[in-house]
Write a structure and sequence with these properties.
This protein is of the alpha+beta class and 171 residues long. Helices cover 26% and strands 30% of the residues. The protein contains four helices and twelve strands, in the order βαβαβαβαββββββββ. A hairpin with a 4-residue loop joins β5 and β6. α1 packs across α2 and α1 packs across α3. The longest helix has 14 residues.
Length: 171
C-alpha cells in the first residue's frame, strides 16, 4: 500500500515541474508528472489529484486559472447538508435562499428569504466562499455572487463548477 506523501514533498515536486515549464494546462497532466517525480525518489507513494491541487494552491506558490461551467443544481450529495443549514434553491430566480433565521460560519446574522451561498466551501481549494456585493443607485447593497480569496474562484447567480484548471508559477 502506498504511503501518504508529506505536503512539503508535493509542493517541491510541483515547483520543480513549473520551473521547467511555463504552465500546465490540466490537472491530470500535473498529477502524472508529480507522481513520476515522487516515485523517482525510490518510495512507492500515493497522492490524489485533488489533494495535490489543494496543497499547491494553499501553499501560495502556485497560480491557478479556473474555467467553469454553469450548473443548475448542486450535487445530490450536498442536498441534505444544505437542508440542515436552512438553505433551499429558489427556481423562480435561480438562486439559493435562506429558509429561516440564524448565523452563518463567520458569525454574520441572516434573515429568512435572504440570498445565500450554497453552504459549502470553495470547490477548488476548500476555503470559505465570501459574498460579492454591489452598491445600488440608492446606496443599498445587492449580493451578486460569491468568491474565494485564495484561488480567485467566482460564482454568480447560478452555481458554477470548475471544469478545467491551468497551473503556473507565481511571480
Amino acid at each position: 500500500m502506498p504511503k501518504r506523501v508529506r505536503d512539503k514533498e508535493i509542493i517541491e515536486a510541483i515547483e520543480q515541474i513549473l520551473q521547467k515549464r511555463i504552465f500546465i494546462d490540466s490537472q491530470k497532466k500535473l498529477h502524472r508528472e508529480v507522481l513520476s517525480i515522487l516515485t523517482k525518489n525510490g518510495n512507492e507513494t500515493g497522492v490524489s489529484a485533488e489533494r495535490m491541487r489543494i496543497i499547491g494552491i494553499n501553499s501560495g506558490k502556485i497560480k491557478i486559472d479556473i474555467k467553469t461551467r454553469s450548473v443548475n443544481e448542486v450535487p445530490e450529495t450536498e442536498t441534505g447538508y444544505l437542508r440542515k443549514r436552512k438553505i433551499e434553491y429558489d427556481g423562480d430566480v435561480d438562486r439559493w435562499r435562506r429558509t429561516g433565521r440564524g448565523t452563518d460560519r463567520k458569525g454574520r446574522e441572516y434573515k429568512k428569504g435572504e440570498f445565500a451561498s450554497v453552504g459549502q466551501p470553495c470547490p477548488v481549494c476548500r476555503n470559505l466562499l465570501e459574498r460579492m456585493e454591489n452598491k445600488t443607485l440608492f446606496g443599498g447593497k445587492a449580493m451578486i455572487g460569491f468568491k474565494c480569496r485564495v484561488c480567485k474562484y467566482i460564482t454568480g447567480r447560478r452555481w458554477r463548477e470548475p471544469a478545467k484548471y491551468t497551473f503556473s508559477r507565481k511571480k
